[in-house]
Amino acid sequence: MSRAAERCWLVLFRTAWRGVRFLPDRSAYRLFDLIAVAAHRYGGRDVEALRANYATVRPELDPAGLDRLVREGMRSYLRYWCDVFRLPDRSAEELAALVRCEGDAPVRADVAAGRGQVLFLGHLGNWDTAGAWATDHLAPVTTVAERLRPEELYAEFLAFREGRGMTVLPLTGEAAVFGRLVRAVRAGAFVPLLADRDLTRTGVEVDFCGQRAAMASGPAALAVSTGAPLRPVAVRYERRPDAARGPSSYRIVISFGPQVPDRGVGSTAERVSSMTQQCADYLGAAVQRHTEDWHMMQAVFVGSGNTQRDQAPSRRP
Questions:
Q1: Rounded Cα distance, 297 and 272, in Å
Q2: SS3 content of the chain, % helix, strand, coil (to 5)
Q3: What gap in Å lies between CA 183 and CA 226, rounded to an integer?
């Protein structure tokens, strides 16, 4: 993007972060829902990328069914952004009411024993809310984030996440990030990593929803290097049972998968590949069940285009 376009995005994000928080919940979520419907109707590169990914993972849908799913995907995506812009003001008590967990008992036992955790996440639901909740109610989060352009926008997201108590390392631009993660895990850190798209050119090719896809090898490599548990995690939206229907009536569900076994057979690369495939199997099943909450607006399947397309600030970081 041009420098002028980058500055426009920066102003837009800063305005949203400051302005949306002053709106009542119902009004804010209603506004973002209207934006989602309009964006779906207008189309554009992001919407078409979402459509292509949804068509790949849900090939049984006819054109009308696929279009409805894309509309719901855009509504979920804009719900994510409204959540993000309002998250700085959420108290720990409010977050507790906005999150439900599944399969978290083994994770809590490991955390209580001081054992570091490595979590394999996809661009599902709202990982920012999940990370803030985990920091308040489970264990402080250490993670890695992709740099955005302009640099000031990356700094805004860094300040936002660190303001919620998370430790965030940049994917690029600093040396020895993997080594820092290894030390953090060995010290008992809780390390969730978004991994359903390879950004490093060193990822692993896996079967994902019946197709070949490139995914990040980092989570499995970190687990192999440290001996820490590796678990896939899926995050989705669901309606709150105690809320009136409407765009503001949702909470997230964090589903912790079973620990992925490291069978210790073969080379390190083979072990990492096997563990990444097991995570991809869990994540793929979640994506097919809750496709509308998979906010993947870049090419991810091998042969569908460049899986490393530059990420503009309009996309989810």
A1: 26
A2: 50, 15, 35
A3: 9
- Element spanning 34, H or E: helix 25-42
The mean pLDDT of the chain is 88
Of the ranges 63-77, 80-94, 126-140, the best mean pLDDT one? 63-77
CA–CA distance, 307 with 58 (Å, rounded to integer): 19
Q: Where are the beta strands (DSSP E) in the chain?
A: 99-102, 117-121, 142-145, 167-170, 190-194, 204-208, 211-215, 230-239, 250-256
Angstrom CA distances, 227 to 117, 129, 231, 259, 277, stand at 10, 28, 12, 12, 18
**Which H or E element spans position 110?**
helix 105-112
**Are the CB atoms for 163 and 128 separated by under 8 Å?**
no
SS3 for 182?
helix
Structure tokens at 165: 């108590």
Containing 288, the helix (H) or strand (E) segment is: helix 268-289
- Starting at the edge strand that comes first in sequence, how are the strands of the sheet with 230-239 ordered? 99-102, 250-256, 230-239, 117-121, 190-194
pLDDT at 163: 82
From CA 177, how far away is CA 144, in angstroms rounded?
8
Q: Per residue in 72-90, is it b (16+ CB within 10 Å) or e — as a string?
A: bbbbbbbbbbbbbbbbeeb
Rounded Cα–Cα distance for residues 211 and 39 (Å): 28
Q: Locate all alpha helices (DSSP H) within 115-266, ordered by sequence.
A: 127-137, 151-163, 177-186, 218-226
For residue 62, which amino acid is it?
D
Instruction: Reduce the secondary structure of 46-61 to three states and give it as a string.
Output: HHHHHHHHHHHHCCCC
Instruction: Using a cut of 0.70, tell me whether the model's pTM lies above it.
Output: yes
Cβ atoms 301, 215 nearer than 8 A? no
Backbone angles phi, psi at 43, to 5 degrees: 85, -150
